[in-house]
Design a protein that fits this description.
CATH class: Mainly Beta
Number of strands: 14
Helix content: under 10%
Strand content: 35-45%
CATH topology: Outer membrane phospholipase (ompla), Chain C
Strand order of the largest sheet: 1-4-5-6-7-8-9-10-11-12-13-14
CATH architecture: Beta Barrel
Mean pLDDT: 79
Distance between the termini: 26 Å
Low-confidence stretches: 1-10, 18-58
Order of helices and strands: HHEEEEEEEEHEEEEEE
Structural class: mainly beta
Length: 306
């Protein structure tokens, strides 16, 4: 099991929140900009889950969980900031966000999650947005998950002629989580009580933005595989590699891999701190990569004590 005892209680919400709060999401004013603006710092919809795969490692046993978080990039980037119902401006700044994440699990391992996000500066009802996901996710090893997630251009207060959400640009992700054989795992674990869990999966996006075509295209497919290591039940490091069966579907902001590390607390009232990097990463020998340390995100998360 990836985590044992009460440490498993809130890990699903933690990873959902970490992915949902990552800065770099530009406030686009048209559907076709949903991924185009992501070139400034964030992968949108090509890989999600995880481009957000966090929940594929673990789930949440609680009926209801919530958390507040602060997330910040480490360098300035150009962002599109709506300043009215029909206008927007370009501004270069460090993107810092305040986020409220809520998750409800009505039965078994079925769940729904929504994260409301607001910028620390340039706050306006049009600059707020939300991200959401739902599906089935048994967090135990040797189980399957099927999740829909949308981390695109979702707004309660829309600007111009945009919709509140573009459901067809979300991702359906099917994954399998598993533990390594004990004969192998015992040689990899550093301390007694540490854990190592891996996963493989497949993600399908019905509609996505192609930078080369400057238009929406259909049926994006992404394969993934990765592992997460937990040290002393709270410190962690994890990495995931992505594979695009049709290489032309990989956009400049879609990484070859993602990685993260930090400290995670799971009980109500506890804090978690993590660094993550997953935007435009490239393996050695490949061009157009921007996976420098400052391209990553730092997130501080507080599980609300109720």
């Amino acid at each position: 099991m990836f985590y044992s005892g009460r440490t498993a209680r809130n890990q699903g919400l933690l990873w959902m929140l970490i992915w949902a709060t990552a800065p770099g999401a530009c406030a686009a004013v048209a559907a076709t900009e949903n991924e185009a603006v992501a070139a400034s710092g964030e992968p949108v919809q090509a890989a999600v889950f995880t481009s957000r795969w966090g929940r594929l490692f673990s789930g949440n046993k609680d009926k209801f969980s919530s958390a507040l978080s602060f997330s910040s990039g480490l360098k300035e980037q150009w962002l599109t900031i709506p300043n009215g119902s029909a206008t927007a401006q370009q501004k270069k700044k460090i993107n810092q966000l305040l986020n409220l994440s809520m998750q409800y699990s009505p039965y078994s391992y079925w769940f729904g999650n929504v994260t409301l996000r607001a910028p620390i500066t340039d706050f306006d009802k049009y600059t707020t947005d939300f991200r959401y996901s739902f599906g089935y996710d048994d967090w135990h090893p040797n189980t399957f998950s099927l999740v829909y997630s949308n981390y695109g251009d979702n707004h309660i207060f829309t600007s111009g002629h945009t919709r509140h959400t573009y459901f067809e640009q979300g991702a359906f992700t099917f994954a399998y989580k598993f533990s390594l054989p004990q004969s192998l795992e015992k040689h990899l674990l550093i301390n007694k009580g540490d854990a190592l869990t891996c996963q493989v999966g497949y993600s399908w996006v019905p509609r996505y933005y192609s930078l080369a075509d400057n238009d929406l295209r259909s049926n994006k497919q992404v394969g993934l595989g990765g592992c997460g290591y937990t040290f002393k039940q709270h410190f962690f490091v994890r990495a995931t590699a992505f594979w695009y069966p049709k290489s032309e579907q990989q956009q400049p902001w879609n990484g070859d891999y993602s990685y993260s590390f930090g400290y995670a607390g799971y009980t109500p009232g506890s804090l978690s701190l993590q660094y993550s990097n997953y935007s435009g990463t490239r393996f050695p020998g490949r061009s157009s990569g921007n996976a420098k340390f400052r391209e990553g995100t730092i997130s501080l998360i507080w599980f609300l004590p109720f």
